[in-house]
Design a protein that fits this description.
315 residues, alpha/beta, single chain, seven-stranded mixed sheet, five-stranded parallel sheet
Length: 315
C-alpha cells in the first residue's frame, strides 16, 4: 500500500525562531534534524526520522555567516535526497549573493546563478524565496521558484498608522516597482530618489523626483545592509521639507556601520521583517520594529503541499 505523502518541516541553524513560528502556524512540530560541526569547521547533518516519500520543506535563510548557512542547506538537501524524500523544497527567506546577479565589469562572476546551480545539483525540487533583490533570479533556476512578497505585511502595518499626508519613496530607480506597489496599497503618491553608486556600499544622492515638502515619507527597499543608502536618503528628504521619515525593508542585513547610521539618522522608525534574525543590540533599538513573515511562509507551505495556487496569497 502506497504511503500517504506527509508534510514535514525542517530547519537549519540560520533562523530557528522563524522556523519554529512557521511550524507552529502550519500545525506540526519541526522535523528531527541535527546540525553538528567538526573541530575544523566541517558541517555534519543528521536526520532523526524517516522522510521516505514525504514532502519536505527546509527553512534556511542565507544570511550571516552566509557561506556556513549555504553549506548547511546544501548538505540538508543532499541528506533528504539520499533518504528518499519525495519532494525537497528549499525555503530561503533571504537569498544571499542576490546582489551579484549580473556582470558589471569584465571577468565578474554571476554568483546568484552559481547558488541556483548548487541548490539544483544538490537535489532541491522547488525553491521558495522572499523579495529577491532582482526578480530575474527566478530565471536562473530550472526548477519551480515561488517568489513571496512582504508588501502586504508592510502595507497592513502602515495602514494602521493612518498617515494623512504621506508619500512612498523609492531610494533608487531600481526599486520603483516595489515602491509603486506599496504606494498603491496605501493610496499615496510616489517619489523617487535618483542616486549613483561610485563603488560598493558608497552612495551619492543626485536628485529627488516628486513632492515631499510637508509630507510624511515612507522609504522602502528590499534589504538594508550598511544603511548608507537609506540614511543618506533620509537626510535628503529632511532637507527637502519632509516632516516625518519612516523606512522599511524585508531583509535587515544591517552589517558594519548600519546601527550607528540608523541611530544618528532622522529616520523615525525602521520597519523590517524577521527573514533575518537581528542580533541582541539591534533588537534593543527603539527605532526598529520587526514584523513576522511566518504566516505568509506557512500559508505558502500549505498551499504548495496541497498543490494550490501560491499567487492567491497576495490578492
Amino acid at each position: 500500500m502506497k504511503k500517504e505523502r506527509e508534510l514535514k518541516v525542517f530547519t537549519g541553524t540560520a533562523n530557528l525562531p522563524l522556523s519554529e513560528e512557521v511550524a507552529g502556524y502550519v500545525g506540526i512540530p519541526l522535523g528531527l534534524g541535527e546540525v553538528k560541526r567538526f573541530s575544523d569547521g566541517e558541517i555534519s547533518i543528521y536526520i532523526g526520522e524517516s522522510v521516505r516519500g514525504d514532502d519536505v520543506f527546509i527553512i534556511q535563510p542565507l544570511c550571516y555567516p552566509v557561506n556556513d548557512n549555504l553549506m548547511e542547506l546544501l548538505i540538508f538537501i543532499d541528506a533528504m535526497k539520499r533518504a528518499s524524500a519525495r519532494r525537497i523544497n528549499a525555503v530561503i527567506p533571504y537569498y544571499g549573493y542576490a546582489r551579484q546577479d549580473r556582470k558589471m565589469r569584465a571577468r565578474d562572476p554571476i554568483t546568484a546563478k552559481l547558488i541556483a546551480d548548487l541548490l539544483t545539483t544538490a537535489g532541491a525540487d522547488r525553491v521558495i524565496c522572499m523579495d529577491l533583490h532582482a526578480g530575474q533570479i527566478q530565471g536562473f533556476f530550472n526548477i519551480p521558484v515561488d517568489h513571496m512578497l512582504s508588501i502586504p505585511i508592510l502595507a497592513r502595518y502602515f495602514k494602521q498608522k493612518q498617515i494623512k499626508n504621506g508619500v512612498v519613496v523609492s531610494p533608487d530607480l531600481g526599486g520603483v516597482t516595489r515602491a509603486r506597489e506599496l504606494a498603491e496599497r496605501l493610496h499615496m503618491p510616489l517619489a523617487i530618489i535618483e542616486k549613483r553608486r561610485p563603488e560598493p556600499n558608497v552612495t551619492e544622492i543626485m536628485n529627488i523626483i516628486g513632492d515631499v515638502q510637508g509630507k510624511e515619507t515612507i522609504m522602502i527597499d528590499d534589504l538594508i545592509d550598511t544603511a548608507g543608502t537609506i540614511t543618506l536618503g533620509a537626510g535628503e528628504l529632511l532637507k527637502r521639507g519632509a516632516v516625518a521619515i519612516y523606512a522599511c525593508c524585508t531583509h535587515p542585513v544591517l552589517s558594519g556601520p548600519a546601527k550607528e547610521r540608523i541611530l544618528q539618522s532622522p529616520i523615525k522608525e525602521l520597519v523590517v521583517t524577521n527573514t533575518i534574525p537581528l542580533n541582541n543590540s539591534l533588537k534593543k533599538m527603539d527605532k526598529i520594529t520587526v514584523l513576522s513573515v511566518a504566516c505568509l511562509i506557512g500559508d505558502a507551505i500549505k498551499s504548495i503541499h496541497k498543490e494550490h495556487s501560491v499567487s492567491k496569497l497576495f490578492d
